[in-house]
Write a structure and sequence with these properties.
Blueprint (H helix, E strand, L loop, with lengths): L13 H6 L21 E3 L7 E5 L4 H6 L6 H12 L6 E5 L10 H4 L4 H15 L6 E5 L1 H13 L1 H4 L3 E5 L4 H7 L5 H21 L44 E3 L4 H6 L1 E3 L12
Parallel strand pairs: 2-3, 2-4, 4-5
Antiparallel strand pairs: 1-3, 6-7
Length: 275
């Protein structure tokens, strides 16, 4: 018996949006990894989504799985959604179709009108005259992108609850930059997410029991949740959804790392060793 799977982009308006996806003519290859192709979404495109999550850009796991927010960031977001009672009725899109390349590249294009024009078509399709009641933005770039869209659709935006959260990988990025320690940055992220939990739960239609157990300042079991099978394309192996890290950029220099993603089957998924 196979897994349930995401049916993709066969229906409109999403089929047309995929066909119209801009490339290097809009996303400068000096600033975006256009060579890995666009990665569009994760979640429900059938009108059953009640929450929209707006992320930043796809990373290594997303480039392979062709769905956004499936790596560490996605697993943390999946845990957040579970806390407010959501298991499947969500949809996720990114600020950028392509992975950002180079420090500061995302900020350089935060208000790029050509990028925003295409992104707003997705947001229109998902938010205007839809049952979505809340929007979760992950990080400042996503919050800026949502704000730009809201200016074009003020009536719809006025009906939506906006939870502007720190990006789920804020602890790693902040500590890597030397601004703080990983422990302190994790505590800061958790405090930020805790501040939004109650209001977010009040503005969504929960599918499961809501467990507003606050974050504790360090990651605990249940704070990260495995990606549901129905979010990934048909034939995706189970370990693509796992909490393991299975994709990484590798290489001896910047060009090699840009060109190479190493995919490794996690040890617990190496079933051939059991045969």
């Amino acid at each position: 018996m196979g897994n349930p799977f995401c049916p993709g982009y066969a229906s409109e308006p999403f089929a047309g949006l995929v066909l119209d996806a801009p490339g290097a003519e809009v996303f400068n290859p000096k600033h975006f990894r256009t060579e890995w192709g666009p990665v569009f979404h994760r979640g429900r495109l059938d009108g059953t989504a009640r929450v929209l999550v707006l992320g930043q850009d796809p990373a290594e796991h997303e480039a392979i799985s062709r769905r956004i927010l499936v790596g560490e960031a996605g697993q943390r977001v999946q845990g957040l959604l579970a806390k407010v009672g959501l298991t499947t009725s969500y949809v996720m899109v990114n600020t950028y179709l392509y992975s950002v390349y180079g420090q500061g590249s995302g900020n350089k294009h935060a208000k790029d009108p050509d990028i925003a024009r295409y992104r707003n078509r997705w947001l229109d399709a998902l938010l205007v005259d839809s049952p979505v009641t809340a929007v979760v933005t992950l990080g400042t770039l996503a919050s800026t992108a949502y704000g730009l869209w809201a200016l074009t659709q003020p009536a719809t935006a006025a009906t939506l609850h906006h939870a502007a959260l720190k990006h789920p990988t804020f602890p790693e990025s902040a500590s890597h930059a030397g601004d703080t320690t990983l422990k302190a940055a994790t505590a800061a992220l958790h405090a930020d997410w805790n501040a939004h939990l109650t209001a977010l739960a009040e503005h969504v239609h929960a599918e499961a029991e809501t467990q507003l157990e606050p974050y504790a300042g360090q990651w605990r079991p249940g704070d990260r949740v495995e990606i549901p099978a129905q979010d990934l394309p048909a034939g995706a192996p189970d370990w693509w959804r796992s909490l393991d890290t299975w994709a990484d950029r590798t290489g001896a220099d910047a060009n090699s790392k840009r060109a190479t993603i190493t995919v490794t089957v996690p040890k617990r998924a190496r079933t051939w060793l059991e045969v």
